[in-house]
């Protein structure tokens, strides 16, 4: 653990990486297994393909690749002392106990740093960024690896067309480093986080926790699968993300016209379109990655960021607004000026 800061510390993004498993699943592939069509999935969601891990691949395997790339992009060695913490946002940990982050830290060779998981479903990466920025501001850490990683293919009900066509697997990671310069590009300038647990039942995996253990011979075998009331979630998603974005912009005093890139949770193209319209941001400024990877939950924001970065869409100094919404219900937003980030 490093000494407490003598000057205020801000958390700046200095590295970025992502990884998806090689297996691509098209809408036509799914139409052979379920009562669905490429036309329905495309028009209702905007998704064309997603990646599903091969059986035996766990969330930590995907997270490891993304994290190694983020470290390389930050020009940092994977060795003890490089980072003070590893934070993993995920809904699909390798197992319910222990957390998956310590295993990732160990497999990367990062030594005995702090390591923990955050569970905020699709908002998890924003929650993890806020936790990391807070640790850095408090002087408890000078460098943190933040990862969002999921293997939703392991919790999807293969017979449920309302969810099986939407979600994909993948991982994205960033390195955050302490700086005393608030105006340095990459500094996470403002956050907004929120939740409304009265709607917890809209997105659930009912079994596997203390309320309903998973036991052999479970009366309802579907209860350990992911379930979502998509229509209800849709309405909430647009309103919550739009309000959360406005809160962040108000905190910064940034007019909405100043937003160069809206990187929203990649749940549905119709949600992203409605969100951009609600905020008054042209749709061309919204990152769209879901057509190729589907909804990757906690991995969605860093995957979309890395895709935009690799395509050269992000210019250093551009204003970037991040926003996510998911089960819990939870939501979160943050803003930064895009830094000069190296490829991994
Ligand atoms: O990531 C966390 C946050 N999650 C989200 O933000 C997801 C938000 N929700 C959504 O993106 C959309 O609600 C969905 C994509 C999940 C569903 O789209 P929708 O336009 O809301 O469809 P719906 O649930 O209202 O269903 C319309 C019809 C239904 O048939 P009936 O009742 O009208 O006869 C469904 O049974 O479409 C049917 N349907 C399908 N048909 C073909 C549902 N899934 C499918 C499917 N293929 N895969």
What do these coordinates show?
The protein is α/β, with parallel strands linked by helices. The chain has two domains: 10-179, Peroxisomal Thiolase, Chain A, domain 1, CATH 3.40.47; 188-337, Thiolase/Chalcone synthase (Peroxisomal Thiolase, Chain A, domain 1, 3-Layer(aba) Sandwich), CATH 3.40.47.10. The chain is built from ten helices and 13 strands. Strands 1-7-6-4-5 form a five-stranded mixed β-sheet, with helices on both faces. 51% of the residues are buried. Bound molecules: oxa(dethia)-CoA. The site of oxa(dethia)-CoA has 22 residues, from α2, α6, α7 and β12.
Secondary-structure map:
Blueprint: E1 10-19, E2 24-26, H1 27-31, H2 38-45, E3 49-51, H3 59-73, E4 85-89, H4 101-108, E5 114-118, H5 124-137, E6 143-151, H6 161-164, E7 169-179, E8 190-195, E9 203-204, E10 227-228, H7 230-252, E11 261-264, H8 269-279, H9 290-293, H10 300-310, E12 319-326, E13 330-337
Parallel strand pairs: 4-5, 4-6, 11-12
Antiparallel strand pairs: 1-7, 2-3, 6-7, 8-13, 9-10, 12-13
Bound molecules: oxa(dethia)-CoA (UT7).
């Amino acid at each position: 653990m490093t000494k407490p800061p003598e000057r205020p510390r801000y958390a700046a993004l200095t590295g970025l990486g992502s990884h998806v498993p090689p297996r691509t699943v098209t809408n036509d592939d799914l139409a052979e297994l379920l009562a669905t069509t490429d036309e329905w999935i495309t028009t209702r969601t905007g998704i064309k393909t997603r990646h599903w891990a091969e059986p035996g691949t766990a969330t930590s395997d995907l997270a490891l690749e993304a994290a190694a790339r983020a470290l390389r992009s930050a020009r940092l060695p994977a060795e003890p002392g490089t980072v003070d913490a590893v934070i993993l946002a995920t809904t699909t940990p390798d197992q319910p106990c222990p957390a998956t982050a310590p295993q990732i830290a160990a497999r990367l060779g990062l030594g005995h740093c702090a390591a923990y998981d955050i569970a905020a479903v699709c908002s998890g990466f924003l929650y993890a960024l806020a936790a990391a920025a807070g640790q850095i501001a408090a002087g408890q850490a000078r460098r943190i690896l933040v990862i969002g990683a999921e293997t939703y293919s392991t919790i999807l009900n293969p017979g449920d067309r309302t969810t099986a066509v939407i979600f994909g697997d993948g991982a994205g990671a960033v390195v955050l480093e302490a700086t005393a310069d608030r105006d340095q590009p990459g500094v996470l300038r403002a956050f907004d986080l929120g939740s409304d647990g009265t709607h917890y039942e809209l997105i659930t995996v009912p079994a596997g926790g203390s309320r309903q253990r998973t036991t052999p011979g479970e009366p309802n075998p579907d209860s350990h699968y992911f379930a979502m009331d998509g229509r209800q979630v849709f309405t909430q998603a647009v309103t919550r993300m739009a309000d959360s974005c406005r809160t962040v912009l108000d905190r910064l005093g940034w007019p909405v016209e100043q937003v160069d890139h809206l990187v929203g949770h990649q749940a549905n193209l119709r949600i992203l379109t409605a969100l951009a319209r609600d905020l008054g941001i042209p749709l061309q400024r919204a990152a769209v990655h879901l057509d190729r990877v589907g909804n990757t939950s906690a991995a969605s924001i860093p995957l979309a960021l890395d895709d935009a970065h690799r395509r050269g869409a992000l210019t250093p100094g551009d204003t970037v607004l991040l926003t996510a919404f998911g089960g819990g219900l939870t939501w979160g937003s943050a803003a930064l000026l895009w830094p000069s980030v190296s490829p991994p």
